[in-house]
Amino acid sequence: MTRISLGIAGSLGPEKAAEIAPYVEAAGFHALWINETQGINALEVAAAVAKETDRLVVATGVIAVDRRPASEILDDLARLEIPAERLVVGIGSGQKREGALARMEQTLADLRAATTARLAVGALGPKMRRLAAEHADAAVLSWLSPEEA
């Protein structure tokens, strides 16, 4: 079975995303991926989408853990009440390179201990791809070059 997902810019905002979400679901898409950039909370957009749909999976691609630690992500999950069975929390290392792998490992462990949502790792380098393969439910490879793949 082939599953096709669609991605949108988180900057579209919760209202616009919620407006288009029923159409995305009706068109048969499996998931709606919402990117997070500085100043945009992809989980807030995902929550708005989830409220307007019945089965569409909502996913973040990806939350930078150097800007938003696991505790903040978990606070958002508790506040927003996104159905865990329809959620994929995508995380990435962000811009800070020093300690990135350890930060990602710890964030994955913290999230895994506190939520049943699926976890995805933005995995461009070989160490992050290994981390995703060993500890996450999915890898986000959207910026991976063909040479690296």
Give an overview in words.
- 40% of the residues lie in helices and 19% in strands.
- The mean pLDDT is 95.
- The protein has 5 helices and 7 strands.
- The two termini are 24 Å apart.
- The longest helix is centred in the last third of the chain and has 15 residues, at 100-114.
- Strands 1, 2, 3, 4, 5, 6 and 7 form a 7-stranded parallel sheet that branches.
- The chain has a single domain (5-140), classed as Alpha-Beta Barrel (TIM Barrel), CATH 3.20.20.
- Helix 1 (13-26) links the parallel strand 1 and strand 2.
- It has 149 residues and is of the alpha/beta class.
- The chain has helices at residues 13-26, 42-51, 70-80, 100-114, 126-135; strands spanning 5-8, 31-34, 57-60, 63-64, 87-92, 118-122, 138-140.
Please give the alpha-carbon distance between the first and last residues: 24 Å
Which stretches of 5+ consecutive residues score pLDDT under 50? none
Strand content: 15-25%
Structural class: alpha/beta
What's the helix-strand series?
EHEHEEHEHEHE
Query: How much is the average pLDDT?
Result: 95
CATH architecture: Alpha-Beta Barrel
Tell me the CATH topology: TIM Barrel
Number of strands: 7
Number of domains: 1
Taking all Cα atoms into account, the compactness measure Rg is: 15 Å
CATH class: Alpha Beta
Describe the structure concisely:
By secondary structure, this protein is an alpha/beta fold. 40% of the residues lie in helices and 19% in strands.
